[in-house]
Amino acid sequence: MNKGELLKMVLVLTLFLALASCQTDQKDKMEITAELVQEKSPFKFWTWITAKAERTDDSYAEEFAKYSYNGIDAILINTHADTKLLSRLVPIAKRFNLEVHAWMFTINRPGDSIAAQHPEWYAMSRDGKSCYDNPPYVGYYKWLCPTREASRNHILGLVENLAKVDGIASVHLDYIRYSDIFLPISLLPKYDLEQNEELPQFDFCYCDVCVSEFEKLHGKNPRDFENPGIDIEWKNFRLNKVKAIVDDAYEIVHENNKILTSAVFPYPEMAGHMVRQRWDKWNVDAVLPMIYNSFYHEDVEWIGYATKQGVQDLAAKDTELHTGIYVPEMTSEEVGEAIALAKANGASGVSFFDGPAIDDEQWEVIKGFEKDSD
What we know:
By secondary structure, the protein is an alpha/beta fold. The protein has helices at about 5-20, 25-30, 55-70, 85-95, 150-165, 210-220, 230-255, 270-275, 300-315, 330-345, 360-370, and strands at about 45-50, 75-80, 100-105, 170-175, 260-265, 285-290, 320-325, 350-355. Helix 3 packs across helix 4 (about 85-95) and helix 5 packs parallel to helix 7.
């Protein structure tokens, strides 16, 4: 063992002794620095986490140290758009050389006290029910209308507030789409559903504003369509409403010297079909497609296929693709295979959902993966 390897071992041991010892005071804990973490690689490892204000700084320092030690480069933090909490966490993460990305629920806004004061902001289904008091599938599906000026300005205001937080790398848009017109196949039994066509209770947005604007553009009313699922203009109208929010968000975050990233469905054609989301058309710096193979009854090899499809669809753009994988349904061997498949098919990195769900055996695979290998 050479001196460099010995020094690294000593430093790593020091890190874990510091985190494990209940006698270590707060000052000592917060002096753990990026000197103890792995070197970074152009092939990036990310993870999503949800933050809670009541947790202590020490507990976050311990969590972030674990991520950095095991090779994570970037964390996507959901603070429910709480900029104060985000500002508190950024310097802690920076001590461990972790990029911080401000993860937000975008068009789906559960728990949004401001939006809740405006029932008219919420998306309307084809059968005339509002997400305000009749959310589809689950109670937290509180989708706003992406067309109404007030609701879209509210969303963009949240983007701007997050973009102004010092030290973040990006604003990360999640739920930047319509509600699922088609669920992932593995979820259908949970709701006792068959979705062989676009069902009216899951087809949004038929509010007065959307219908009126579409009618002015195309001279027809989507409420009158016998089969709206085959009307390309109506589908494209809604695709473009999502794109318009993304493109405006892109300008906002770049004005604040940040980048824009987004969690998206597995590849563009699939996303367009399932949730009216054509992310290959967007102005966005990086996408993290959620290629959760178990959701679609697919094997691990499908992760390579979906990654390659997305990379090819982005070939004419500067947008990076970082493959999202769902670790709870995977063995450690499958996690390693998924990373390798993503890398081999052109991904710029891999994101793991979610940090707290990764077990010790999976961490060993992640930490040991040779990022710089061909």
